[in-house]
Amino acid sequence: MSAATSIHITALDGIVNVNSLFTLAVFIGLAWNPTDPNNSLIDPIQHSGCLPGPKIAENLVAFHVYSFSCFLFSSLVALGLKQATRLAHYTNRVVWTFDLAHVNKTALRVGYVVSATGSVLGSVFLMLALVNVAQIKLGVLGCSGGSGHVYGAVVPLVILVPTGLLIYVSTVFYAFTR
Hints:
This is Maternal effect embryo arrest 60. The chain crosses the membrane at residues 12-32, 61-81, 110-131, 151-176. Keywords: Membrane, Transmembrane, Transmembrane helix. The structure is a single chain. 70% of the residues lie in helices and 6% in strands. The protein has helices at residues 3-31, 54-85, 105-138, 149-177; strands at residues 86-90, 96-100. It starts with a helix and ends with a helix. It has a two-stranded antiparallel sheet with strand order 1-2. It has one domain. The protein is built from 4 helices and 2 strands. α1 (3-31) runs parallel beside α3 (105-138), α2 (54-85) packs antiparallel against α3 (105-138) and α3 runs antiparallel to α4 (149-177). By secondary structure, the chain is mostly helical. The longest helix has 34 residues, at 105-138.
């Protein structure tokens, strides 16, 4: 196996593994019942204006489903690329062996970009779902009577996740141009 192909397969395995972890997070999020009154940390008497409406719970579920769809799409594309990189052929001894295939580098690059796009979109939707979780647990953003804890949860999320995605996209772009 050549070093370049080994690197490609390792990168594709990494995409699938990370997407699997995020997909697990999405399933855990979907299993949580956002309408359960015992799941909120908001005191309904003191902060009645901070209680989230049903639209936030609907968005939470929708963003989880969008995120799951994107991660699944990205993983399937990465697995397809991995399978295309390895090709089974028939030998004279009637044994199936796995050898490397000649893969169109342009198609491989496009596949990487498509898979990376699915991962980025899945991460964005997961971040939006987590913003809704924070609003359900701590109070809606912009609440006049809130304690500000929701901003303490959301601000690092909306700074760190896009920063990580920017680094990821930069790395994918760098690999795409080489």
